[in-house]
Amino acid sequence: MNRNRLGVAVLTMVVVACGTGAPTQTAVVTTTAPATASPAASAVATASAPPSTPAAATATAAAATATPVAGPVVVQLADSEYGQILVDAEGMTLYGQVLEGASGAPSCKDACLDSWPPLVVSGDYAVGEGLDPAIFTTVARDFGTQLKAGNYSLYRFVGDAAPGDTSGHGAAQGFWAVIGPDGELIAR
């Protein structure tokens, strides 16, 4: 049996084994691909998983490598006054900086990180229902691996006290904004 057929068989067994209960969709993204995988095969998939809390939700398969992987949901969608926006696992709003739009290079460094803590991931992670895992990538920083949506590195704002707060939107003369499900900044 060649590698692709074996992978499909393993993926099928995992989905069947986890198919109890009402399915929910969770996308899995792995930040490390096997040495034999092509860049396009950097494990991105959608799989059915039993319901669980958003912070603890995990998925069960990665189709690109056909190797089951799981990781915590680190980004999900939430409704806000700006429409649906990206939030972290605890429901805290995630922001992007306008300056990163063209280059995609992180622009918040040094003292900036005191007010705008980055969303750091390690190993495998998942994105929540309704999100396209293809828009998420990572960037190596001196403090770890930061998650990105589209061209925007993801940050929280220390001025937000509770889930649903969006006080960082429009901050610093409009250089910060909430991010929509498509990985694009939402204009004020």
Low-pLDDT windows of residues: 1-69
- Count of all domains: 2
Give the helix/strand class: alpha+beta
**What's the β-strand tally?**
11
Following the backbone from N to C, one meets helices and strands in this order, namely: HEEEEEHHEEEEEHE
Beta content comes to 25-35%
Taking Cα atoms only, what radius of gyration do you get, to the nearest Å?
Answer: 17 Å
Trace the largest sheet across and list its strands.
2-1-7-3-4
The helicity comes to 10-25%
Report the end-to-end length measured between terminal Cα atoms: 54 Å
Describe the largest sheet.
5 strands, mixed
Count every helix, treating DSSP H or I runs of 4 or more residues as helices.
4
Q: What characteristic shape results from the CA principal axes?
A: globular
Average the pLDDT over all residues and give the rounded result. 72
What's the SSE blueprint?
Layout (H helix, E strand, L loop, with lengths): L2 H15 L6 E6 L14 E6 L23 E8 L2 E6 L6 E3 L2 H4 L8 H4 L4 E2 L3 E3 L8 E6 L2 E6 L2 E2 L17 H4 L1 E3 L10
Parallel strand pairs: 3-7
Antiparallel strand pairs: 1-2, 1-7, 3-4, 5-11, 6-9, 8-9, 9-10
